[in-house]
Design brief:
three-stranded mixed β-sheet
Length: 109
Amino acid sequence: MIKVSENAKTKIAQLMAEDGFNIAVDFVRVGVKSGGCSGLSYELKFDHSLGENDKLFEEENVKIAVDKKSFLYLVGTTLEYSGGLNGKGFVFNNPNANRTCGCGESFSL
């Protein structure tokens, strides 16, 4: 399961509407790919088509799609949004990550 903070939910709803997506029917796709300075990096985008290997969750009225491979790396992760003075953006708080890079966009197990 992947959790979504209240701040992230608010920002997701805003960005989805700006991009022509409907939070009631469309979803956020999160995933993991090879790359980044720590070995694995996070992916986040909006989508409306599910693949046969996708898992679909709903948290805080936000639908989240994750492919089965990425799900193994993301179990227990909380998606948050930080809009403070140190920068804006989505943050993956992943309890499975042993090491992260300075920018927080990549990790290793």
